[in-house]
Amino acid sequence: MSAQTPVPAKPATLPTLESPQSDQSLPVVNQPGVPFVEIEALRAREFIPAAKEALSSLLKEQAEGKLIRPVFNWAGRNSLFPLHWGLACCAIEFAAAFGARWDAERFGVVPRSSPRQCDLLIVNGTVTWKVAHKLITLYEQMPEPKWAIAMGNCATGGGPFRTAYSVVPGVDKLIPVDVYIAGCPPRPESMLDGIIRLERLIKERGE
Amino acid sequence: MQTNELAASLTSRFDSRILGVDGFPGLLGRVRFEPAIALDLFRTFRDDLGFSHLTMVGGIDWVDHREVFYALWSDADRVYVMLSANLPAEAPSIASAVPIWPSANAHERETWDLVGIRFEGHPDLRRIFMPEGYAYHPLLRSFKIFEPEDLEVKVRSE
Asked: Is the domain of A147 the same as that of A104?
């Protein structure tokens, strides 16, 4: 029973697909700006990462800074889709801003009903502790990039209910807020002004 | 029915466990009772005296004790009556009125949430205004209004 069975010796290195023997004579593909002709000479296994690297470096250097980011910034800030989540009397002014008289769709602002389609959360009204986690859930369901506006005194700092036991004293305790709109409730002009300021803010930040 | 008739019929059933029947403006009377006879008293009021509707349940914090009160409405006599009981300040609890009047459900949840009176036998005694996991009963006199700057935000506390 105590006879030792000889263990077959393992090979020192197993050949694996993940670590190919690198050929030092090939061009270094990790540096940006590899000419396409030299990529053609690569082996098939190395072609895709090399091409990806070349393309992405090309995009990073030339296209992203000058074309993609400004275009996305321009498109995003001119088509802010706020979430239609009315909480209190500010929602009446919010709704009035999309009526015929003020027509907020001039600025590309179209309220949507699903947070998945929105990039702007306008908190209009008094947020209580009971509904606070639902506000955070809605904010987290929105795709990036996203912004938030605290509309009215209640959402900004709790308003007249600031010291009440059931009211969140300002939604910036819960989510990051970009623009605060004062008023109780703010008129639709104030809301449009806040949206235009947010557009300027997005342009300055280059998001 | 008059206040003295109500007092006579109640004391004939519950004698000394009815602590008093007082006149009260706008009501048939205010009945003070011991919390131990709560369910029997509720049944008497609904089945024998015709108070078919429980209008509200509330609570008061009197620092040394707490008071729970019930407002009842009689469709037959078209009159209100108020029942009230004193509970100890330490762990106040009383039998739930939900088996007698189902409309007590939300009122008792509210009284538990804000004043901290437990209702034994309530089918679903959760908080109703404050989020679950909230540590205080905000209408107690020992509750201090917090400064918003010192607030520690705990929203998801389950």
From this structure: yes
